């Protein structure tokens, strides 16, 4: 498979060719910029050439009159990468997991739901994925030491995080990018996504817990039983499960700040006054706080109240918390900058891919074929029920998630078309986002194009075909549950 960048650029080229074939057209919009159904009209053709193809990623980053740039999203992705780099420098996340494992020694089966819930929260809130690679060398010996196998260890982190991504609540790389494309708050639809997170996480926990119970009673039923003796030597089971290293006070403080950061982000993104016009607590508190003499000037009179935040504000939050963690951990300035910049470097590819993917929308908009595609969709949706539309949207995103493994790239590439189609079918934009996220998370549980999947299996020395065999039933369960959920949510 070529890289996601190559796939996206090929799509840009294909779209540019289509601007020479598909008739140009446009819709009228209201004051808020929303497309008005039934106002489509044909316009003069504007085919895109080589110049336009190579300009598309550039405009995709900075924007133009027809397409909003991805710069705010890309900058946030870089800053959150720096934040995670600083947190990882303290080793607090690894030691936090180790501390939980030690606390439940002798009751390891209880760790399955506890750890999977923690990993699911990480996947749901900030797209946790690659960060789990560090946990497998710890989880594998612990799970094997109590009679489980390496599949259980891999599933705890891999299934946990990807089910979290499947039901992302405020994941900036999925929910954030898609919401910005549709010009809605990432907090819209948060309640339904939270319910989906609970359901899918519960299904996954039951599946993994059942398998762990079976092989604990009869190890020969393990799908990797033939390599158990080799694994016990490879992972030095006894030596590694006897580690008694304790978390330091500074690392505990970092963990608390890490969790607080995402709590504040969630509070900042939820549109409280839109949910209830009387929920003005944060507005009143911010007005009171900034009105205090000297303190108001010190904090800044332009401080935005929680509930009105968007990418600028949450980018500032992660930058501020990075500095706060440096101060609390007593990290030297040089170490902080090195960790922050390396963290940003790790996320540079994600930040750039958003702009490249936005280039698809740039070519469609500048080639004046977006309106025509929407018009065809509008005609095709005539008489189609809301439930059927959203389930078909979910199914559509499954092969698309394979072709474009990047959740942020997929959102930037397609949401500008699928979102308005949902509007024609009277399906909310937030539910369309839920369908896209669910498909992306579902595919990323097994796709060989995912570095997370292949990296985890490589560490555990598990063949991908064995992983597919083990995951088959869970994939079916998650697919059915998600379809039912989307179908019901569409008519409520």
According to DSSP, the number of beta strands is 2
Kindly provide the radius of gyration, computed on alpha-carbon positions and rounded to a whole number of angstroms.
24 Å
Percent helix, as a range, is over 70%
Query: Which strand order spans the largest sheet, edge to edge or round the barrel?
Result: 1-2
Summarize this structure briefly.
About 70% of the residues lie in helices and about 0% in strands.
Describe this structure in words.
With 492 residues, the chain is mainly α. It is built from 24 helices and 2 strands. It has a two-stranded antiparallel ribbon with strand order 1-2. It is globular, with a radius of gyration of 24 Å. The model has no long low-confidence stretch (mean pLDDT 86).
Annotate the secondary structure layout.
Layout: H1 4-18, E1 25-26, E2 41-42, H2 50-62, H3 71-90, H4 92-103, H5 111-126, H6 136-145, H7 150-166, H8 172-181, H9 190-217, H10 228-234, H11 237-241, H12 249-269, H13 272-275, H14 281-290, H15 295-299, H16 311-329, H17 333-346, H18 348-366, H19 370-380, H20 386-403, H21 407-424, H22 429-443, H23 451-460, H24 464-491
């Amino acid at each position: 498979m070529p890289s996601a960048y190559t796939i996206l650029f090929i799509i840009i080229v294909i779209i540019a060719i289509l601007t020479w074939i598909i008739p140009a057209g446009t819709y009228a919009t209201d004051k808020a910029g929303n497309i008005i159904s039934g106002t489509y009209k044909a316009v003069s053709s504007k085919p895109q050439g080589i110049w336009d193809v190579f300009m598309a990623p550039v405009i995709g980053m900075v924007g133009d009159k027809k397409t909003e740039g991805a710069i705010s999203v890309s900058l946030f992705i870089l800053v959150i990468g720096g934040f995670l780099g600083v947190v990882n420098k303290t080793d607090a996340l690894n030691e936090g997991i180790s501390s939980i494992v030690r606390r439940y020694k002798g009751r390891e089966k209880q760790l399955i739901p506890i750890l999977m819930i923690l990993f699911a929260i990480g996947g749901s809130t900030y797209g946790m994925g690659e960060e789990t690679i560090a946990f497998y060398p710890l989880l594998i010996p612990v799970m094997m030491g109590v009679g489980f196998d390496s599949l259980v260890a891999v599933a705890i982190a891999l299934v946990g995080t990807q089910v979290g991504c499947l039901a992302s609540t405020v994941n900036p790389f999925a929910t954030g990018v898609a919401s910005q494309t549709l010009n809605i708050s990432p907090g819209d639809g948060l309640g339904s996504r939270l319910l989906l997170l609970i359901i899918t996480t519960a299904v996954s926990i039951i599946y993994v817990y059942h398998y762990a119970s079976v092989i604990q009673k009869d190890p020969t039923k393990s799908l990797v039983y033939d390599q158990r003796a080799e694994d016990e030597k490879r992972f030095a089971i006894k030596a590694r499960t006897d580690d008694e290293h304790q978390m330091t006070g500074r690392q505990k403080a970092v963990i608390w700040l890490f969790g607080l950061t995402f709590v504040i982000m969630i509070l900042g993104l939820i549109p409280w006054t839109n949910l209830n016009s009387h929920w003005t607590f944060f507005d009143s508190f911010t007005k009171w706080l900034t009105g205090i003499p000297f303190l108001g000037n010190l904090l800044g009179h332009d401080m935005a109240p929680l509930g009105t935040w968007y990418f600028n504000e949450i980018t500032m939050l992660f930058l501020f918390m990075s500095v706060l963690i440096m101060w609390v951990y007593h990290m030297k300035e040089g170490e902080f900058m090195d960790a922050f910049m390396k963290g940003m470097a790790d996320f540079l590819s994600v930040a750039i891919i958003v702009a490249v993917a936005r280039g698809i929308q740039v070519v469609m908009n500048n080639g004046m074929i977006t309106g025509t595609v929407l018009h065809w969709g509008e005609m095709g949706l005539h008489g189609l029920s809301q439930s059927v539309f959203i389930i078909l949207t979910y199914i559509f995103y499954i092969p698309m998630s394979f072709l474009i493994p990047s959740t942020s790239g997929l959102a930037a590439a397609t949401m500008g078309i699928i979102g308005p189609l949902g509007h024609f079918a009277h399906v909310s934009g937030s539910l369309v986002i839920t369908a896209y996220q669910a498909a992306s998370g579902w595919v990323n549980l097994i796709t060989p194009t995912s570095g997370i999947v292949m990296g985890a299996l490589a560490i555990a020395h598990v063949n991908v075909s064995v992983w597919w065999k083990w995951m088959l039933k869970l994939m079916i369960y998650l697919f059915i549950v998600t379809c039912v959920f989307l179908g019901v949510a569409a008519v409520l």
